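QA checklist item 7 of 12: single-chain prediction sanity check.
[x] sequence parsed
[x] length recorded as 501
[x] structure emitted
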Amino acid sequence: MRSDKLKDMVGGSELINQLCDSYLPAALKSMNVANRCDIIAKAAGWARISFAEKQDAELLFSAWPFLVARFAPGLQVIQSLQEIHDGGLPAAIKVSADQLRYARNLVSVSLPEISPLVERNPRTGLAAVAYDERDSYLDRQSIRKRHYTDNASLVGKITGAEAQKKLWPGTMEDIAGDQQSYIAIIHADGNDLGKSLIALGQYLEKHRDKAADIYRGFSNAIEESTVEAVKRAFNLVIDKDFAERKAEFFAARPIVLGGDDLTIIIRADMAFEFTVQFLEQFEICSAAAVSKYLGAFNVSGLPGKLTACAGITLVKSSFPFSQGYELAESLCSYTKKIAKEKSTADGYVPSSFTFHKVTNSLADDYEAVVANEMTVQHGETAKSLSFGPYSVGLSDNLLPRYSDMVELVRVLADFPSGTIRTWISTLYADLNQAAAEFERLLQIAGKEKAAKLKDALTALTGETTDPLWSSTGATPLRDAHEMKGIFRRDVFEKGENNAKR
């Protein structure tokens, strides 16, 4: 993601997707060790391999960084080599994981150094090795990525057919469309995988001989759950929109799809619907995958399904992608942090998401955004305009429900947008004046509309006396106002049907 050009990110995604999927097996075969090793698990950019012979493991360990440097220049490689002793494979994997965490914190030095006399790629700051009349100077990484731009291994996980690769967009403008100025960057990640690994570890203390099959099955279950959930969400939202509009391109492009990670760029008005479908389908698909790959082992304490959280950044199509992506990751982490405190009655972290629409030139860590932009301080009274995360999925929990937010948006559609926007501005300046403006808004709306608005607010805040604010001093009104501006009318009506469901 060093370049903000979509085609460079697509090429980079393809390189990482193929790194351990096809390049690693080819490397093992060329070293004549493929028949003496076992790839226990692999996903986009990582793999876990056991070797029968120490010298075979050392051969790959020494050669792999150089092979990666040829295949994907500039990609940092971290690796661990650990002998399997009396503790068996589980103990070796634990030690290896600690070594990898340590290695990840080491600074990777780029050689050779770039001298003042060397021309640079203006997008990445890296040393230029070629000149493109259409796109100025290019560095080695960018050239390599562009060689893989037309590959379809990543999108092939979703659509399968080679012929459909031309239907995926190549620019942010293709995603945004003619009438849309905003795109959404969605980052989703699985919850509580550590709890599952603890259950597997306890099981393997008595069944060490099954370690390779257990870890392979768990990895396969996670990968299959994520890919299948994306496929279903794609068919229900993106492909349906594509068919209805008779468009030239799908209004989305996946950037990361491996393990329990998903990053996708999508037209803004489809972002909420896609996220909801993905999170709900992930629960359903994971229940089937866990049973399929691990059911025969009867592992005590292993969850029957997996859940996930997501962050959605809404930005203009010209906004620096790297900043938008970092904010989406931060939103996802924020969601996980809050959701873990609101675990469901059956012990699951609720599937949920948080979103933020970037209206200034800088995107920061979301907790910093909440403190600096979304918190209104008047003396000792603090009010928050950040209300999420919003829960979806199949379990009851203590988070506000997305379906209730959709209902608030539906009610808010009968109120002038300018009035709500003015109220938000007034809130920053004068809390008492903002309260008076809100009461005036209810009076002008009439009893019926005012009652509907209060009921919709109460469903989210849980308060009846002053439903505008929750017990923690947060209001969902700003989020509803932002959603109202993003929703297309027909997409909003689909959301209304989901709320009724």
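[x] summary fact logged: Residues 6-104 form one domain.
[ ] second reviewer sign-off
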